[in-house]
Specification:
By secondary structure, the protein is mainly beta. The chain is built from three helices and seven strands; from the N terminus they run βββββαββαα.
Length: about 160
């Protein structure tokens, strides 16, 4: 019998544990809780059913990425194979996972703004007091009348 592939949406419950095998392969394990809902026609509202606990295991790069990305309380989407059902929990071998965008915004390395865009804007430099006598020469210097008006406080 081939393993059952399933898609689960739920909330990470607790911390993600990551370990390494003797061959330096990353493996992580985390708990996931799915709370199904059902429409109650008599009350005209949705009601939560009993939560379904999952214990998820991921390997290699997926394990490393999950350990870096997942925290307690994050809603995720998991695609995996059911490996066993024991102790009132469903064990999943995770093939793929993603963060649910239903309640949050997620950024990837390619969608983040560049560090230059995130740099704080520096205040403009404070104006320096004018020198007593400035030669008005060169193509970039102001005309003579400019200096005279400025010296007279623009009056």
């Amino acid at each position: 019998m081939a393993p059952s592939i399933t898609h689960v949406t739920g909330t990470v419950a607790g911390d993600v544990e990551v370990r390494f095998t003797q061959d330096a392969l990353a493996v992580c394990r985390f708990r996931l809780t799915q709370t199904p809902t059902q429409w109650d026609a008599s009350a005209q509202k949705w009601r939560d059913l009993d939560p379904i606990p999952y214990i998820c295991t991921a390997w290699r790069d997926l394990a490393s990425n999950a350990a870096e990305s997942l925290v307690d309380g994050v809603n995720i989407l998991v695609k995996g194979r059911i490996t066993e059902i024991r102790d009132n929990s469903i064990y999943l071998s995770v093939d793929d996972l993603g963060i649910s965008l239903r309640r949050r915004i997620a950024y990837t390395e390619t969608s983040l703004p560049s560090p230059i865009a995130a740099r704080p804007i520096a205040a403009p430099p404070a104006p320096q007091p004018a020198a007593a006598s400035r030669p008005a020469t060169g193509p970039g210097s102001p005309p003579a009348w400019w200096e005279q008006k400025r010296a007279a406080n623009w009056s």
